[in-house]
Structures are given as C-alpha cells and as structure tokens.
Amino acid sequence: MPKSPPARKPSGTRTASSGTAEPTIAEQIDALTDPSFMTSFARGLAVIRAFSDKRRTLTIAQISTQTGIPRAAVRRCLHTLRQLGYADAEMNNFALRPKILSLGYSYLSSTPLSVSAQPCLDTITQRLHESCSLAVLDDDAVLYLARSATSRVMSVALNPGSRLPAYCTSLGRVMLAALPDDALDAYLDRVKLRAMTPHTVTTQKRLREVLAGVREAGYALVDEELEIGLRSIAVPVRGASGTVLAALNIGAQATRVPREQMEAQFLPALLKGSEELSVLLP
After folding, report:
1. Which of 26, 109, 230, 249 has its C-alpha lying 20 to 30 A from 128's C-alpha?
2. What are phi and psi of 141, to 5 degrees?
3. What's 21's DSSP letter?
C-alpha cells in the first residue's frame, strides 16, 4: 500500500526543550518505511489512543490536531470504529464505547501476573489503607496492569491500561534503574524529560544519578515530581532469573504521609508483596 504524504503539522505541534519541533504522531507513523507496515491500521490505533479520561469526547478536528493525522483519515477511522461498535457519536462529538475494553482484555486475562496480582494488592491496601498498583514498562511508559485504590490520589483516574511517564514516577524509576546501560542510553535518547511539576528531574545527568541511587537502594521514592501533592514509593518485581519484569508501588498524599513513614512502614509491605508476585513470573 503506498504511503500517504506526511501530514501537515497542526498548530498544536509540540516543541522539544531544545526548541526544535517534535514530530507529530502522524509523522512518526509516516517515517516508518517497512513495506509490510500498515499505515491505516497504525492511524486507527492512534485515533483510539487520542481519547483519555480528560478528553472522553473529541471532534474530528481535535483528534487531527492532537495526532497530526489528516481530518479525512481521522473521519474514516472513526467511521470504521462506529461500524464495528467500538465508538459512537453525538452530533460531531465522538466517544469510545465499552466494547473497546475487549481489545485489552485478552492480554490482561492471559497474563498470570495481572490475573493473580489483585489479591496481593488488595491485601496491601487493606493493611495500609493506601492505594497500591502493579505496572510494567511498555513503550517507554509505565503501563498499569492492576490497582487497588482506597481513594483518588491523583487528578487523573488510574486503572489497568493507564499509562504514565516512566522517568518521573516511582514505578518507572525502579524499572529504568534495572535496564542495561545501552537500553537506558537508548531510552534517554528517545524520551524528552519534561517538567511535570517544579520538582521534576529534567536533565539526563541528574536522572542517571537518581537511577543509580535507586539501583543501590533497591527502591524508588518520588516526591511531587509527577503531580504536586503526590508522593509514591515502588519496588521491583523480579522473575525467576532475577530480571526485573514489573514494579509495585504505593501512592499517597504528600501532606498526609511523610517520607519516613513510606520507608519505615510501606517499604516492608511492598517488598513482601514483591516476593509473593515474583513466584508468578517466569
């Protein structure tokens, strides 16, 4: 199938910290030259991922601006999703339908860790009365597999399938700290370290220092780097070979839970939970 010409950059094109324009999602897709790569399918996935808990309804123009995909292509993707029952529309506002969950259910239901982790997370939450989550590193981001929540500690809802930046989260840092040097170098070359709050580490040098400390300590504690008012602590979950395959964390309000309590009370519970989950991994 012939490649479509690169999409025109929308007015909302992001700019990297160096001042150069970052490629839109559409440009990243169009840059792939593999003859077996299906551009239309990739665009459809990008349209699905444009929706979030903050933007549950979107117009064709909004999706086009967010992704860089031409409006005509966005319209065809949405039409296809509607025909298949994955999306619906009211006037010009499109929204995903519950059927979209079936796309991720196959993975979640076939992964022993995500299926078996919930009782462990629930036990930690019941004991500490704090939200507990399990995640893996996927596509340079933290991907939530399971979660037990007592209350909403972030401005966004976190559920299985939610994604967050790895560099400024405790879950992400324990997994980044376990990467081989070449894999970490490649990650830092790809990812822009944006300031999510005034406390976010945004330089490669400082992040490497932080990750070295995480590697030595065996856990990560992040103070208001992802969101003001949020403090979290995480530990790695290892497979039988000792390789870090996932991470387990507790997040709480920074004004209510001091660092000392996280290290003295939460860390032992997480380490015990990590040991229990490790037996489920190959």
Report:
1. 109
2. -130, 165
3. B
Question: At CB < 8 A and 24+ separation, what contacts does 198-205 make?
Answer: 199/223, 199/224, 199/225, 200/168, 200/225, 200/226, 201/167, 201/168, 201/225, 202/17
Q: 126: left (phi > 0), else alpha (psi -120 to 50), else beta?
A: alpha
Task: Give the fold, CATH level 3, of 111-278.
Answer: Beta-Lactamase (3.30.450)
Average pLDDT, the chain: 87
Asked if 11 and 65 touch (Cβ cutoff 8 Å), the reply is yes
- 260, two tokens: 């000392």
| Domain 25-101 fold | Arc Repressor Mutant, subunit A (1.10.10)
Q: Which residues contact residue 247 at a Cβ distance below 8 angstroms, ignoring those fewer than 6 apart?
A: 134, 135, 136, 137, 142, 170, 171, 172, 174, 175, 234, 235, 236, 237
H helices of 156-258, in order, are 170-176, 181-190, 204-217
Predicted confidence band at 11 (pLDDT cuts at 50, 70, 90)? very low
Identify the band that residue 3 occupies on the pLDDT scale cut at 50, 70 and 90.
very low
Helical spans, DSSP H, in 147-192: 170-176, 181-190
Which uninterrupted H or E stretch holds 245? Answer: strand 244-253
Instruction: Spell out the residues 6+ positions from residue 255 whose beta carbon is closer than 8 angstroms to its own.
Output: 229
* Encoded tokens for 61: 């123009």
| Nearest Cα to Cα of residue 48 among 87, 98, 84 | 87
- Written as six digits, the tokens of 93 are 């506002």
